[in-house]
Amino acid sequence: MDGDVGYRLHKSIGFLDFPRDVTAQTREAAYEAYSMLAQAKVRIIGLNFDASAYLNGAGIGLVISLVEDAIRAGCTVYAYGLSAHYRKVFSMVGLNGHVTLVTSEQDMRNRCGIRQLTD
Questions:
Q1: What is the CB-side half-sphere exposure of residue 63 using CA atoms within 13 A?
Q2: Is the whole model's pTM more than 0.90, yes or no?
Q3: Comparing 3 with 81, which gets the higher pLDDT?
Q4: Alpha-carbon gap, residue 68 to 18, rounded angstroms
Q5: Which pLDDT tens digit goes with each residue over 12-30?
Q6: CATH superfamily, region 6-109
Q7: Rounded to whole angstroms, how far apart are CA atoms 101 and 107?
């Protein structure tokens, strides 16, 4: 399905893999995936936008809500795979004050002390 949001776990790190279009239709799948990470008690969350090409206003609102929930739960949040345009949007809405923007999943893993993608 187009609005599916995948999730992955690695020890205390969780990843949310966003689809091509992040819109209002993505909300339910995103919260289902986030719920799985919360149940696993992850401490670090990576928002993966590698496959995403479009985030509309509702999609940005969804990301803001997810980030707020994660921070309230005591998580550190990273985001990667964003185009220059969406990095600017994250800055304009203040997300960059709560989310560490990195260039790639490997960059995030390096910052978390995990050297290989296969860990």
A1: 34
A2: yes
A3: 81
A4: 17
A5: 899 999 999 999 999 999 9
A6: STAS domain (3.30.750.24)
A7: 10
For the chain, what are the domain ranges? 6-109
d(CA 100, CA 79): 6
pLDDT tens across 79-104, in order?
999 999 999 999 999 999 999 999 99
Decide if 44 contacts 112 (C-beta within 8 A). yes
Phi, psi of 45, deg, nearest 5 = -125, 130
Distances from the Cα of 31 to the Cα of 1, 16, 40, 87, 96, angstroms? 15, 10, 14, 22, 21
Rounded CA separation 49/30 (Å): 13
Could you say which DSSP state residue 23 is in?
A: S
**pLDDT range class, residue 11, cuts 50, 70, 90:** confident
Identity at 33, one-letter amino acid code: A
